[in-house]
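A quick aside before the break. I want you to see a complete sequence-to-structure record at least once, exactly as it would be stored in a machine-readable document. Don't worry about memorizing anything.
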Amino acid sequence: MTTLPLLLVTAAAGGALNSVAGGGSFIVFPTLMFTGTPPVMANATTAAGLWPASVSSVIGYRDSIGKDARRRALPLVVASLVGGTAGATLLLRTSDVTFVKLLPWLLLFATLVFTFGRTIGARLAKAKTAGAIAVVTATVAQLVVSTYGGYFGGGMGIMMLAIFTLLGMENIHEMNGIKNVLGALINGAAVTAFAIARLVDWRVAGTLAVGAVIGGYAGAALARRISVARVRILVLVLAWSLTIFFFGHAWLT
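That is the input. The structure line, written in tokens, reads:
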């Protein structure tokens, strides 16, 4: 019971980061591991705990998505549901020992995406991809990202923003709205699979959900006072520190 206040505060911080710059899982997931939750269960419980906050963000952006953007994103919806389920299924078949070995590399990949995602997105935006080819390319890319998201998820949102540029999307509010919808679908599909497999610690997930929702609302208000760039730097420092820590831990053990 003594860890619940810590989890509540951690989830609130994670929810706030997600609403401002992303990267909330970089705080929540390691905290669960450090408090004794097995790695695979920690990953599943993090997804379940942060999912309600992602749903609330969908509601907040519901008026930002136009009809044309919804039509173009429809193939991505299907890819997200399929990929999220596939990624969760892969996680369910991964032992704690194997996941611990993969974890430093997953964190490194997520951190690299968080670091360089905007640059990649800007370059993709300059690409001249024709209609049908763009849709197929974006759908396949979304399937891959969704599978990764169902398995681990760090940096997933930034990857999706890069994918949207292939479809010619430019309105950042619209892109964020679609990203939140697809993210909620991916995590929802994954959490459903985790719940069926009884891999979620629901007492912990409930605490995380309360903290994440509160933090998400607070983060949105805080964003008006603090530079998003500074928050992003904070997330980058945290992400790289955790990546180095887990690589060091794997090397020492």
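Two observations worth writing down. The longest helix spans residues 96-125. The CA atoms of residues 5 and 207 lie 8 Å apart. We'll return to this after the break.
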